[in-house]
Give the backbone structure.
Amino acid sequence: MRKSSLIISAALAAALPALAGQGVEVSHLGTDNTLVRVAGEGKYLILPIQENIDDAKINVIVDNEIVKTFYARLAKSKTDFTVPFDLTPYKGKRVELLVETPQGRENVREAKGDVCWKAMEISDSFDTTNREKYRPAYHHTPRYGWMNDPNGMFHKDGKWHLYYQHNPYGSKWQNMTWGHSVSSDLVNWEHLPIAVEPDGLGSIFSGSCAIDTEGTAGYGPGAVVAMYTSAGRSQVQSLAGSTDGGLTFDKYEGNPVLPLDSEARDPNMWWNPDTKEWTLILAHALDHEMLIFTSPDLKEWTLQSSFGKGIGAQDGVWECPDLFELPAPGGKGTKWVLICNINPGGPFGGSAAQYFIGDFDGKTFKADTDKNGNVPTKWMDYGKDHYATVSWSDAPAGRRVAIGWMSNWEYAAEVPTQQFRSANTLPREMKLFKGADGDIYLASVPVQELEALRGEVVAESGKATLGATPLKIEIPASTEGLYEITAQFDADKKGKVELTLGNSAGEEAVIVYDAATRTASFDRTRAGVSDFSQSFPAVTVAPTHEKTGRVELRVFVDRSSVEVFGNGGEFVMTNLVFPTEPYLNLSVSAPEGGAKLSGIKVYAVGAEALR
Ligand code: FRU
């Protein structure tokens, strides 16, 4: 009797590992409750993910204590992709994941059938080889997982640091942490370990960084200081500091430093050398206003003013503010720019970045009015995919460089990618200019570093008179559809000039300049895959701010985006597109005739520019 039961349990024990992946032991404690024990050695526990199911809640237990909780869509019937759970912080300790799977299984027997248990494994490596057709070649993307807002950007010692809202455990919004990348040329990005992780106060929403030259916050002179929103039951503002140049942050023990009794987020702060205090602008999201505070040490904050009640686009929540000074057009002093991202309520639905031009005295922002005495609503970019745009702090040579999230909350989680979701826009230099109506506007100029991307001119045309019959320019397949187009033309007084990017599948993205309305538009209604969201097909329209009909375009085409910059960034449209084949047929026409093309060039993106 004894002997046989021993034999049976030995046989059972031998069968157990077969139910789980390599180096992993799985015990099903109940219908929706499973314990995963890390039994092998390795850097990562690889987690299989299925996109279209609900999140499981995962408590990470180390030596019997819960050290972390996160959510992941652990695969039930099929694995779409995998994500790594980093085991290195717990080396030599007993690690278990207590998984609460979503409701929906009848009993434990059914729960055992989930494919994730067998597919989990311990590994020393995680394969980040790109498997995605639509992953951009020269835009910043996370190697895997979800990304939304760029945030916390600062420049130090020749490096542009870029943090971003990141879910490391899946390709939909969840588990907000600060992912981290760094670049010395704003083109090539190196991926660094996660910089700020969720804690007892909540997940880590957007915020800002700056160099604390005077060491006011207690992290020493020259430390990188960060403020971010701790998003738990409430949204409150927290402080952290880094003494290793932004790789890791120590959270301030007195957090939160700025709790309010209403929803506020995305603190953006900087040191004011004149007043010797910190200034902070904070989105009072549901109140549709920005709050401005000052502080001597990033811990004690005094509310100075608010801006925005009843002003500008008010339809959505106000988020991700920025406030900075730029030389005024014509060399006359300076002006301040207040960026206010809103969602929804953008000009073409969903998210967009509006801005205000005005003056700031260190305490209060006062917006300029137009000739009718109103504060006009202005947009940084008239495409559908430009959101959460903010700028780098401490940039050299007085530069003000901004970058946006190249997506839209309307469909960001549904776009046809899986291993990763979302890219950032190309970085843009901020400049002010006077529009034809006499008002001051913000231009977004592609940063000069992007010229290094230009490889050979692979197609071109010299001067030509444009008419209804399109001028056809073939772009070699060797470009793989990655290129920059430059074009200059003079449109007839009331005429239109059309540039069409087409492919062999008959899909096309169409850019139209219309001299009659002084607008440019971008039509992606037939540009490729769009069935993932009814909000995706769109025609976006930008005012061009000129009176002459003379237009210079720079159009950046990557695997799933087109960014149109007109007249030195005086009008911009950033739009995602998902062509099934690369756009290799460019055609240019003036349907009503009479437009003069000065020249057009297509630069391949040089492989040597991309490291
Ligand atoms: C903007 C935003 C921010 C917030 C973050 C959360 O896209 O909603 O207001 O901090 O995303 O990920």
